[in-house]
Specification:
Blueprint: E1 8-10, H1 11-18, H2 22-30, E2 51-53, H3 54-68, H4 73-86, H5 93-96, E3 99-101, E4 106-110, E5 118-121, E6 127-129, E7 141-143, E8 149-153, E9 160-162, E10 172-173, H6 180-188, H7 193-199, H8 204-220
Length: 221
């Protein structure tokens, strides 16, 4: 498997994993009606139907997180343009940089040895600001030795994860490789959570968390 490119996700699968409407996700990669350009580029190219990579899912999920913090798409575009023009080595900044937001702008943390961290206002053209006023922590990504995303936590308790090495790249229960959709379907069929957990050597709360995550994700998509 080529890291970051496989597995591949259909639009509906990616939308469910991210927890956002599929039509909105499509516009991010295909562009808006009237000719407004896309903000993200699919690794699968211009092929139809739209196919996304693991990296694409990570990018879109972070973009959705900023959107939920009321950061406008116009500000996101301005930020990505600033990064591409002024910071070398960050062709895909949503994979490499951890942005923070106060709901209006996006910031990049700059850490110098022995000094207090500062935030670079990438939306406002590079102004340095104090981090206390805008700090938001995004701790859902795990990076490999190359600095690329290798795992994405999908819940706050770190029980549900997306990792290309497990479950054919679909959401699984951490530490088990058991896919959440399998647990959800058995629960929907009327099986007790305790019995499902026993079958897969899981804790009942793990099954409960996985089923709850699937239910919310399917509703959002």
């Amino acid at each position: 498997m080529q890291h970051g490119i496989e597995p591949r996700y259909r639009l509906a699968e990616a939308a469910k994993i991210i927890g956002m409407p599929a039509p909105t996700l499509r516009t991010w990669f295909r562009g808006w009606p009237g000719g407004k350009p896309a903000v993200l580029a699919p690794d699968g190219g211009a092929a139809s139907p739209l196919i996304l990579s693991f990296f694409n899912v990570v990018e879109a999920r972070f973009l959705d997180a900023y959107r939920r913090r009321s950061v406008s798409m116009q500000r996101v575009r301005r930020t990505l343009n600033f990064v591409s023009e002024h910071l070398s080595g960050f062709e895909r900044p949503l994979l490499k940089l951890e942005f923070e937001t106060d709901g209006r702008a996006l910031f990049i943390e700059l850490q110098e040895t022995g000094k207090t961290p500062m935030l670079l206002d990438a939306t406002g053209g590079g102004q340095l600001v104090w981090p206390e006023a805008v700090r938001v922590h995004f701790q859902s990504l795990v990076f490999d030795d190359r600095g690329d995303p290798s795992r994405l936590w999908l819940d706050n308790r770190h029980e549900v994860m997306l990792d290309p090495r497990f479950g054919w790249g679909l959401p699984v229960v951490a530490g088990s490789g058991v896919r959440t959709d399998v647990l959800f379907e058995r629960s929907e069929a009327g099986e007790e959570l305790d019995a499902i957990a026993e079958d897969f050597s899981l804790k009942t709360f793990q099954v409960e968390t996985a089923v709850a995550w699937e239910r919310v994700a399917r509703r959002a998509a």
